[in-house]
């Protein structure tokens, strides 16, 4: 489930709905919006970090990187 959420958020990032430098919604907001467990949100955001799409700053939140990696390298082979 967390991979599906990460893929959905990646699509929103690449479409510009979550712009470079923009803050992702908070964990609780995403948990409620997508009706998933908090652990699912955390794993999804971690996967986005691993893909190089977001950075997380302690006590500040997660932010979309300014220079997105190419899409074919971001998700890897599936």
Features:
78 residues, mainly alpha, Arc Repressor Mutant, subunit A, two-stranded antiparallel ribbon, 10% strand
Write the layout of secondary structure elements.
Blueprint: H1 2-15, H2 27-34, H3 38-50, E1 54-57, E2 61-64, H4 71-74
Antiparallel strand pairs: 1-2
Helix pairs in contact: 1-3, 2-3
Structural commentary:
This protein has 78 residues and is mainly alpha-helical. It has one domain: Arc Repressor Mutant, subunit A, CATH 1.10.10. The chain is 50% helix and 10% strand. It contains four helices and two strands. It has a two-stranded antiparallel sheet. Helix 1 packs across helix 3 and helix 2 packs across helix 3. The model has no long low-confidence stretch (mean pLDDT 91).
In short:
With 78 residues, the chain is mainly alpha-helical.
The major beta sheet can be summarized as:
2 strands, antiparallel
CATH superfamily: Winged helix-like DNA-binding domain superfamily/Winged helix DNA-binding domain
Distance between the termini: 15 Å
Give the mean pLDDT: 91
- How many E strands? 2
What's the architecture, going by CATH? Orthogonal Bundle
Number of helices: 4
Order of helices and strands: HHHEEH
